[in-house]
Write a structure and sequence with these properties.
The protein contains 13 helices and 14 strands. It is of the alpha+beta class and 439 residues long. Helix 4 crosses helix 6 and helix 9 crosses helix 10.
Length: 439
């Protein structure tokens, strides 16, 4: 049974072909030693039709053409990729089986399945699913190929998003533009318009914000054995007991002056759990703070770390959870990281990695798990090293011991004016001791 392995990018195809046993590269595909073929779509080879391509009358922006709802959704070949589509179509003619090996996500499903549908492939379909393009990651995925129906819901979700962009975006863009009647186009989008609303709402809140004054008192307290402590009377601006006027602050100051009272000391244990691993939005936020990276820059560097260097898992993910099936491979990742970050990794290895259920939760996953390093540890530099170090730091923190501490609170009732202070002392090494970057 001849098989075509359908990937998304030539580099992805080369990685999979290498593991499967490449015989030689041809025009638009790689032939394997067993005669099977590995090919690629080069991103989206098909494009949805423009309104006038569905109906010539829809070319004119007019109220009587709205709403524009296609009876049957159609695609056309991207002219720049017509040659590669022709290659795929020819390969599929001689194939009885296709293994979809595009990116493990909604877009990957959409790209593969719309291509197979366009080429009218009717044979057997299976799915290779991996978020790691190392040889080990690909071999694991090859040993666990999924049936055709396993990821169909993701394809349907991608189609829903694509169709919504037409039904919502194109129709409402025309409607709002016609209603405004200014000669300018007003773009409406499924994502951009709700986000714009949130930005405007927050901007209005900032513009209309009215600052409120409140006061705090600071007392220097001398203990019986001569130690000096600074305590605060600070109810907070939202407290009913807040001091909102200078007169009230002075009144309480006079009450407290010269007061003597026993100090109350309370110590209680506590614990800080480590943060979750990175999703792309969380990584973009921290990379902006740490390095000044833009969101697009963070994504571009992460894609390079994944596609070209293969040192991290698939980066285009909104998830901050991990798949429990990753656990067997983590010791190998830690062995590699120990060579590069020995001090930080030793904190994890001292008590062994902690596989917390709240992190390794399969029920929280959709198409991808959070971003983590792979076992392919190698020397990096520049922005690659900066972003990689940020990802490794978070990964090691996730696996490190919980931060246990003692909180000590000291308080004093100075003639009904309560002063207090508190401090926290951590016990032993924990995830909080893992800091690979200076903040």
């Amino acid at each position: 049974m001849t098989t075509v392995w359908l990937t998304e990018k030539p580099s992805q195809g080369a990685d999979i072909a290498r593991v499967l046993g490449a015989a030689g590269r041809k025009n638009g595909f790689i032939e394997l030693k067993n005669g099977d073929k590995v090919t690629w779509t080069i991103g989206h080879p098909l494009q949805g039709l423009e309104p006038h391509e569905y109906n010539p009358a829809w070319k004119r922006w007019a109220w009587n053409t709205l709403p524009m709802i296609p009876e049957v959704w159609k695609n056309a070949v991207d002219k720049k990729k017509a040659g590669q589509v022709k290659v795929i179509k020819e390969l599929l003619k001689g194939a009885q089986r296709v293994v979809i090996a595009t990116d493990a996500g909604r877009e990957g499903e959409l790209i593969a399945r719309e291509t197979l549908e366009y080429c009218k492939f009717k044979g057997k379909i299976e799915r290779l699913w991996t978020s790691v393009l190392t040889d080990a990651g690909i071999k694991t995925a090859l040993a666990n190929l999924l049936p055709n129906e396993a990821k169909l819901p993701l394809h349907e979700a991608a189609l829903g998003r694509q169709h919504a962009d037409f039904l919502w975006g194109i129709n409402l863009t025309r409607a709002v533009t016609l209603a405004a009647n200014t000669g300018e186009m007003f773009s409406v989008g499924r994502v951009q318009t709700p986000v714009l609303y949130l930005v405007v709402r927050l901007d209005n809140e900032v513009e209309t914000f009215k600052a409120q004054t409140f006061y705090e008192l600071v007392a220097e307290v001398k203990t019986a054995n001569g130690h000096l402590l600074k305590l605060k009377h600070a109810p907070g601006e939202k407290s009913e007991n807040a001091m909102r006027t200078e007169a009230e602050a002075k009144r309480r100051l006079e009450l407290a002056k010269g007061a003597t009272a026993p100090l109350r000391v309370e110590t209680s244990p506590g614990a800080d759990e480590p943060p979750y691993p990175y999703s792309m939005p969380a990584l973009q936020k921290d990379a902006s703070t740490a390095f000044g990276f833009s969101a697009a820059e963070t994504l571009a560097v992460a894609q390079r770390l994944y596609n070209d260097l293969k040192v991290i898992s698939y980066p285009r993910t909104d998830s901050q959870h991990l798949d429990p099936t990753l656990i067997p491979g983590i010791p190998a990742v830690l062995r590699g990281l120990t060579k590069m970050f020995p001090d930080a990794a030793s904190i994890v290895m001292a008590k062994g990695p902690q596989y917390r259920k709240k992190v390794f939760d399969e029920s929280q996953l959709t198409d991808h798990h959070a971003i983590v390093p792979t076992d392919n540890v190698q020397a990096l530099s520049g922005k690659d090293l900066q972003l990689y170090t940020l990802i490794v730091e978070r990964f090691l923190q996730v696996l490190a011991p919980t931060a246990e501490y003692d909180t000590t609170k000291v308080s004093m009732n100075a003639n009904s004016v309560l002063f207090s202070t508190s401090g926290r002392v951590y016990r032993g090494d924990s995830w909080r001791n893992i800091k690979l970057l200076s903040r």
